[in-house]
Amino acid sequence: MHDIQFKYLRRHLYVLDIVVNRQIVHELIYKSDGTCLDQLRINMLAFTKLCTMLENRGGLRASRYLQIDEQVVMFLHILACHVKNRVIKFKFMRSGETVSKYFHNVLYSVIRLHEELLKRPEPVPENSTDERWKWFKNCLRALDGTHVKVKVPISEKPKYRNRKGDISTNVLRVCSQYMQFIYVLPGWEGSAADGRVLRDAICRTNGLRVPHGMI
Questions:
Q1: Which of 24, 39, 83, 211 has minimal Cβ neighbours within 10 Å of its Cβ?
Q2: Where is the DUF8040 domain (predicted)?
């Protein structure tokens, strides 16, 4: 009798956990575009498209315990809000191992999509009428660096402190006129100058390629 009651209780708690987790996901994604942008840096439509791409072309799969949207929302929430594993563990009521496992599952799926997410550059056409780009005919791409705040050991902080005093990593990004990423180089310390990061990108074996006469 006690075994039957225990099994019923476990099943009841399992169903309750699923309901609560789905409510959390709903609050973050499907309640409003504003909340979705604040928490994930992406709107609902883009989130839905990303989930579809990761499932259909990135190989991401739902499991018995986590649907695809919950896996992706945990992944994006970590990146967008720079929160730790234990924060996601508490917020989504998952174990730390589960959070880590599914974060890496989504990451690997994103990497598989690199040929789609990183676009080949196309020059701005001679007859372009786009007010933003018609002055840059034959331009292939635009590049810039951005500083992303990070947390590093105390001994590493001097290297990662940028000119504004923040602890960050300097990320080089290259995109097309349609805001499609062509090249990304993360990892440099915040104290590194943009020119140094660019030089490293160009000198790498599989680094940034700049056509002659186009720089």
A1: 211
A2: 22-111
The amino acid occupying position 203 is C
Q: In whole angstroms, give the CA distance from residue 215 to residue 201.
A: 14
**Contact call for residues 75 and 42 (beta carbons, < 8 A):** no
Provide the sign of the torsion angle of the four alpha carbons 115, 117, 121, 126, taken in this order.
positive
User: Domain end: 100, 116, 132, which one?
Assistant: 116
- What is the reported pTM? 0.64
Provide block-wise average pLDDT over 10 residues at a time, the chain (215 residues): 47 49 83 88 92 94 89 92 89 90 95 81 81 81 87 91 92 84 89 92 84 55
Domain ranges, residue 190: 121-215
Instruction: State pLDDT tens for residues 3-44.
Output: 544 444 444 434 445 566 778 888 888 888 888 888 898 899
Distance (Å, rounded) from C-alpha 81 to C-alpha 91? 13
Residue 80 half-sphere exposure toward CB, CA atoms < 13 A: 17
Tell which of 116, 134, 161 closes a domain: 116
- Which residue type, as a one-letter code, is found at position 146? T
